[in-house]
């Protein structure tokens, strides 16, 4: 048996390198994302145990009057890094026709007053997100502060009321919605009742301050004792887990966003559209995590290409003519 001709061997080496080098570059650029995609290979809809949760979510949405798929995209701007990033994200999303809603603590609104006032004048809706700072710089990175579950009821009420005044002053109009800081830690019925009582007196129409679990049964727009709740949303692979940017950072000091974040958005949209599901994709992120990041921008372009309409918070809250009602006692039993 003769040796393989030299030209053929060179050609085989070139072909092998052309296939290997791009994979190596992807691994070096985004090691966590590459490994995550290997471990979380695309799941066929019929084999996904969370499919039934998405199906009941869709049925509840249609029962409440929501037809088709919509996007409610909000951003928690908790640090100084989010100020310029918010404007960058707004510029990008506007080019795609996608609306954004901002949740900014009062202290950060004052820090970035010029930028946030401009965004408000450009039509961006601002949610009351409390007054006190939600993060501080420590050991070369931001760490979370201000947890409502560690504060007295009087302090929580004061924080909400102070933020209402700050949003109104800087943005030129009173907020219509509310989100608690680090809201996953403030979910019990009595905690939610406290929030709802305060914001109803302020004339708010909605909150977006709960995790995805209620949405699986009651849909994307829920009547919670007289205030509309827009629960956050998960993904096709993990319906119970909030699809947020922080969980998908591959570098939490320099803020590099893994590819899996965008993959999950695209996959969720494709599955729900293919199965003709209805609902609101209530996703949120931190602006500094996603500004200029390929993963996020790819997902947004896909959503725009699919023609999914985007809504500000108060319009999302009005999308369902007859939202299903859930009392806070039910919330406790079903959480």
Weakly predicted, low-confidence segments: 30-41
| Sheet with the most strands, sense and barrel status | 5 strands, mixed
Measured on Cα atoms, how large is the radius of gyration? Answer: 22 Å
Instruction: Report the mean per-residue pLDDT as an integer.
Output: 87
Cα(first) to Cα(last) distance is: 70 Å
Instruction: Output the strand order for the largest sheet.
Output: 6-7-9-8-13
Task: Indicate the structural class.
Answer: alpha/beta
Structural overview:
- There is one protein chain.
- 46% of the residues are buried.
- The chain has 335 residues and is α/β, with parallel strands linked by helices.
- The chain is built from 14 helices and 13 strands.
- Helix 7 (153-171) crosses helix 8 (189-201) and helix 8 packs antiparallel against helix 14.
Produce a short descriptive summary:
The chain is of the alpha/beta class. The chain is built from 14 helices and 13 strands.
């Amino acid at each position: 048996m003769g040796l393989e001709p030299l030209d053929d061997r060179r050609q085989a080496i070139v072909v092998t390198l052309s296939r290997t080098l791009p994979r190596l570059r992807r691994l070096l650029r985004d090691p966590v994302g590459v490994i995550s995609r290997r471990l979380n290979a695309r799941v066929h809809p019929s084999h996904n145990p969370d499919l039934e949760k998405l199906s009941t979510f869709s049925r509840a949405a249609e029962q409440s009057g929501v037809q088709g798929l919509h996007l409610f995209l909000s951003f928690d701007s908790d640090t100084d890094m989010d100020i310029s990033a918010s404007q960058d994200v707004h510029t990008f999303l506007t080019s795609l026709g996608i609306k954004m809603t901002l949740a900014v603590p009062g202290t950060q609104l004052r820090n970035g007053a010029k930028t946030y006032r401009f965004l408000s004048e450009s039509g961006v809706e601002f949610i009351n997100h409390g007054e006190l700072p939600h993060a501080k710089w420590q050991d070369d990175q931001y760490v979370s502060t201000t947890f409502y579950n560690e504060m007295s009821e009087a302090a929580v009420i004061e924080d909400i009321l102070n933020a209402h005044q700050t949003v109104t002053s800087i943005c030129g109009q009173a907020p219509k919605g509310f989100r608690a800081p680090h809201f996953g830690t403030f979910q019990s019925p009595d905690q939610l009742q406290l929030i709802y009582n305060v914001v109803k007196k302020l004339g708010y129409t909605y909150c977006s301050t709960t995790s995805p679990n209620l949405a699986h049964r009651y849909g994307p727009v829920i009547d919670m004792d007289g205030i509309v709740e827009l629960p956050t949303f998960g993904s096709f692979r993990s319906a119970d887990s909030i699809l947020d940017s922080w969980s998908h950072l591959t570098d939490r000091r320099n803020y590099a966003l893994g590819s899996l974040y965008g993959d999950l958005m695209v996959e969720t949209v494709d599955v729900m559209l293919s199965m003709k599901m209805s609902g609101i994709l209530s996703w949120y992120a931190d602006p500094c995590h996603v500004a200029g990041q390929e993963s996020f921008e790819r997902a947004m372009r896909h959503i725009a290409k699919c023609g999914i309409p985007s809504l500000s918070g108060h319009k999302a809250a009005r999308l369902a003519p007859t939202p299903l009602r859930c009392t806070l006692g039910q919330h406790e039993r079903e959480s």
